[in-house]
Amino acid sequence: MKKFNTTVVCIPSKHYMVDLSERVLEIKKLVDDGKYFTINRARQYGKTTTLKALQRALQRDYIVLSLSFEGITKAGYQTEGEFVQSFSRLTLDQSEFFGISIPDKTADVLESYCNQEADKLKMDELYRTFRRWIAISDKPIVMFIDEVDSATNNQVFLDFLGLLRDGYIARESDGIPTFQSVILAGVTDVKHLKSKIREEADSKENSPWNIASDFKIDMSLAADGIKGMLDEYEADHHTGMNTEEIAAQIYDYTNGYPFLVSRICELIDVEVSKTMPLSKAWTRDGIDEAVKLLLSENNTLFQSLTKNLNNYPELKDSVRSILMEGTRLTWNAQQDSIVQMQMYGLIRNDHNTVKIANRIFEIMLYNLFLSDEELKQNVFSREGGLAKNQFVTDGKLNMRLILERFKDTYTEICGPLVDRFKEKDGRELFLLYLKPIINGTGNYYIEAQTRDQTRTDVIVDYLGQQYIIELKIWRGESYNTEGEKQISEYLEYFNLTTGYMLSFNFNKKKETGLKRVEIGDKVLFEVTV
Questions:
Q1: Bridge partners, 39 (sequence order)
Q2: 15 strand-pairing partners
């Protein structure tokens, strides 16, 4: 029986996976056209799985050398000769373990490199050995190099790329034999390596990989592709799920990030099914439970994201500004922070505006930033945690009571509002109060976008129930009336009849407390601080 897989490469015969055939055909066109290119995507974005599927699709027409730089240790980059030896061993492994036919003469030369003294070996001789093989081969040779990030801080790798570049130019201008196609896969965009390694005094400006074609193929998983994977699972398990609806809900959380899609499915299949029957697990309730489990993990993807944020404080500040302060950033492909955030998978280009890549990352990052605030000030977490039980009745949140108690607690702990108070301050403080109440049972989302491009502030999901809260600074009756109208439209969109508003009012003669407002068939509970 197949399983969902979130470790390394997915194998069609063993794992439930989205059909990659269309994507592979698009990439094969680049190979057929003789392109050199880089597949740079974030961690666990399906690069290795895609390369394996591409390798299978190319084997009839090409000899495919599929190498991974994880097979080269740090010592293999110390000198030119040591790199030649390491690369030779990787290539020989293709024959010994993966059945690639290497001509005897070529294999003998590569073996000799492994046995010579490293300081006598030259990179250009290694490349000439490959060119001689290419010249006599009955099929064009394609080379994949996966995990290329392992080499990104090494000059010998840049020199190797320079040889590939020169060979590509010679092929185009003089017809000299070289690789049909070279594909480098990793997180780092190899076109930017020059800036990491070259000394300022070095006047060489050309990147050794400036011959690479743009790789614009979408590697996220579409909702219909997720549905196809779930159809296969359903045929095996007969859960009765609506695969189209479940696929759409998973996509809504993940925006098609491959690891997140597979991990949610894996958690439903393996963990959620322990506490409820499969027919219940493969519903919105089961997805929400899987998301809670996912967000409680310290998995390698989350570790990678937080590591990158901690290594780049300016990057962390930019992400925090987008989330916590609602900063609107215009997409700019030349802006270094934006390039880095995209490269690490944190953001996406949404109609030329920077957006956090998906809802899972939004929640994970909010939790991270709120935890930072809790460690700094610990304003509300103890009070909210102690009072948790009084806010839940029959499995439902008493959001009206939460807002009232927040008002009382804020007034008691924080005192009067001050002029420097901003809308994001109110949001952050309210979430600091709310988080220990729903922690482990519910989730929250900030400014979740609706289909008609309108927005709201906070949406709380708690045991299958949704609660919509509009947070704002009081700017007069007309502004407040417009806010009431807007939240009633949000309620209509989410098929809800009750909504909530939390206003921070600076007027000295303000009237604090709770009031009930009816707009058509909608009921709003408004609390003023």
A1: 185
A2: 3
Q: What is the DSSP letter of 501?
A: E
Correct CATH for 19-197 of 3.40.50.1970, 3.40.50.300, 1.10.600.10, 3.90.226.10: 3.40.50.300
Residue 462 near residue 442 (C-beta atoms within 8 A): yes
State how far the Cα of 373 lies from the Cα of 294, in Å rounded to an integer: 22
Order of strands across the sheet with 458-462? 442-446, 458-462, 465-473, 498-504, 522-528, 513-519
Q: Can you point out the beta strands (E) in 454-497?
A: 458-462, 465-473
Q: Are strands 498-504 and 37-40 parallel, antiparallel or unpaired?
A: unpaired
Q: How many Cα atoms sit within 13 Å of 60 on the Cβ side?
A: 3
Distance in angstroms (rounded) separating the CA atoms of residues 424 and 473: 10
Write out the H or E segment, with its range, that includes residue 146. Answer: strand 141-146
Higher model confidence: residue 231 or residue 474? 231
Query: Residue 340 has what pLDDT?
Result: 86
- CB of 226 closer than 8 Å to CB of 237: no
Unique residue bearing structure tokens 């159809």: 231
CA–CA distance, 445 with 457 (Å, rounded to integer): 8
What distances in angstroms separate CA 482 from CA 152, 286, 349, 447, 477, one per listed residue? 53, 37, 30, 17, 9
Rounded average pLDDT over 445-473 = 73
Q: Which residue has the higher pLDDT, 142 or 520?
A: 142
pTM: 0.86
Least confident of 14-18, 59-63, 414-418: 414-418
User: Who contacts 377 (Cβ-Cβ below 8 Å, separation ≥6)?
Assistant: none
Both structure tokens of 114: 């492994």
